[in-house]
Amino acid sequence: PEAKYIVVIRNPFDVLVSMHHFWFMISAYEYEGDFSDSFENFMNNYMESGDYFAFYRDWYERSADPTVLFVVYEDMKKDPEAAVLKVARFLGPEYEQRLLANDGKILKDVIKYSSVDEMKKYTNDMIHDFYATDFAFQGEQYSGLRKFHEVVHNARSREDGPAASADKIYYVRKGVVGDWKNYFSPEQEKRLKERFQKETRGSGIANLWPDMGFHERKE
User: Fold this and answer.
1) pLDDT in tens, 118-132
2) Which of these, 11, 8, 12, 31, lies nearest to 21 by C-alpha position?
3) Distance between the two ends of the chain, CA-based, in angstroms?
4) Has residue 70 been placed in a domain?
5) Residue 139 φ/ψ region, left for φ over 0, alpha for ψ in the -120 to 50 degree band, beta for the rest
6) Is residue 10 assigned to a domain?
7) Count of structural domains within the chain
8) In 3D, which of 66, 95, 94, 60 has the Cα closest to residue 202?
9) In angstroms, what CA-CA distances link 219 with 12, 188, 205?
10) Which of the four, 69, 157, 166, 207, has the lowest number of CB atoms within 10 Å?
11) Does some domain include residue 214?
12) Boundaries of domain holding 64
């Protein structure tokens, strides 16, 4: 059978804020820039994840493919039950049936344990333990992950010893929608919207966020 692809997309404004905090979180990066620096990094594609717009533009070209499902982060936050059921239907009818069986017990559990509050409890602890302890995976396929683990595990701050940087790792931070409004200047908002319009023109991606003001005004 053909592989299926679930593409999760979040508006670039909140993505940028999240990346800004991520760079500070990994002390091994020794990142000392302010938000203006992070903004310019994003605008110039100076990120380990590459060009946000190129990635989603290429995937969106296949959004009508039956093996591709686009899931909008903001929609998940607004109605998590609908989002979970949407994914289940995409994977196959048997998945939706399992979620809804026994008065929807599994569905309720999925919604609960995938919430930001619950993920803060266990995901952050799990990732902290991963970086604070020795790397346990064997094999060449883990070489990249092993190197990143080594950098974080051995990072020293001025006051702390090795592995102390793991204490500062919180992969799940806020998970809210619209926090970007607390960071962007009017000029930065204007520049990113213009970049969005330029990079996604004709693709229909702006329709994913009808209230974000991404649509170009017709003269």
Assistant:
1) 988 888 788 778 877
2) 31
3) 48
4) yes
5) left
6) yes
7) 1
8) 60
9) 26, 23, 21
10) 207
11) no
12) 5-115+177-208
